[in-house]
Design brief:
Blueprint (H helix, E strand, L loop, with lengths): L12 E3 L1 H7 L2 E6 L9 H14 L4 E6 L2 H13 L2 E7 L5 H9 L3 E5 L3 H12 L4 E3 L5 H7 L1 H10 L5 E5 L4 H14 L4 E7 L18 H11 L4 E3 L1 H15 L9 H6 L9 E6 L8 H4 L1
Parallel strand pairs: 2-10, 3-4, 3-6, 4-5, 7-8, 7-10, 8-9
Antiparallel strand pairs: 1-2
């Protein structure tokens, strides 16, 4: 079957000369905001939707804080199948829901937390002809692994450190698997979470109970890394630095890796890749907030 694609992947690895001078490291930004719907989710969604069609699926379902929603909706439209998006009422950036509505997907709002939305999505996905395409779907992880292989190719080696936002943990799991597959070695991995997961201003990582917590713990044990917990003030400072010092406009959550540098994720002169997961146009209202 023909692959369902919107041209995802092959995103830039950008040098960050001003920030690397500040931190005394070699710093690169994996700019995932360059993907078709503006976030890293497109890598996994392309694989998940392609394989869903091979199985005869006619409807895909996801729970989302916003980026998975936009990606799910776009790839469903590309494939000519239905998409149902479950979100927490008031929990997703309005601009991400605009992306969903623009391509004709259906939005279902539920009260509570992301865990409540995920349970509702599981129920919908249990109906005939339907499939859940959250990161618990292994096809999503298979697609997201490709970013690690790209980093190895672009750098010519495995970096010393990888730092990235920590919401549900699927991306951390995917990078660990990707480095294992591409190079047989892991960088030291530091996922960065908000200290106020339930109501952080960084809506993309507003997930109270990371569904991939066990896999993240395994990746950190094997890599010698750790979870770093930062305040929302830390996130805002990092977000500002990324915009004003490097010209990269991300959504607030995507600057979590930069915030992690302030908390000791890298030692002097190490080679560090920060994964910048989503474009700033995902949540433009954050500038005013």
């Amino acid at each position: 079957m023909k692959a369902i694609t919107l041209g995802e992947g092959r995103t830039p690895l950008l040098a960050a000369p001003r920030l690397q001078e500040r931190f005394g490291i070699e710093l690169w930004l994996k700019w995932e905001g360059a993907n078709p719907t503006g976030s890293f989710k497109d890598r996994g969604m392309a694989v998940a939707v392609t394989r869903a069609l091979e199985r005869g699926v006619t409807r895909i379902v996801c729970a989302s804080t916003g980026n998975t929603a936009a990606s799910c909706a776009a790839y469903a439209a590309r494939a000519g199948i239905e998409a149902v998006i479950v979100v927490v009422a008031g929990g997703a950036a309005s601009s991400k829901l605009v992306q969903v509505r623009a391509v004709g997907a259906r939005i279902v709002e539920v009260p509570g937390t992301f865990s409540d939305a995920y349970r509702a999505a599981e129920e919908l996905a249990a109906e005939p002809g339907s499939l859940l395409v959250n990161s618990t779907n292994p096809d999503r992880i298979d697609g997201q692994m490709t970013a690690a292989a790209e980093i190895v190719e672009q750098l010519g080696r495995v970096p010393d450190v990888l730092t990235l936002p920590y919401g549900g943990g699927g991306n951390t799991k995917a990078y660990a698997r990707g480095f294992d597959a591409a190079a047989g070695a892991l960088p030291r991995i530091h996922p960065v979470e908000s200290a106020v997961r339930a109501d952080t201003l960084a809506s993309a990582i507003r997930i109270v109970d990371p569904i991939h917590r066990a896999e993240v713990a395994d990746a950190l044990e094997r890599s010698g890394g750790s979870v770093l917990t930062v305040s929302d003030d830390d996130l805002l400072r990092a977000w500002e630095a990324l915009r004003l010092e490097e010209g990269v406009f991300s959504e607030p959550a995507s600057a979590a890796g930069i915030a992690g540098l302030e908390h000791g994720s890298a030692r002097a002169h190490e080679c560090v890749v920060c994964v910048v997961t989503g474009h700033g146009l995902k949540d433009p209202a954050a500038i005013d907030r």
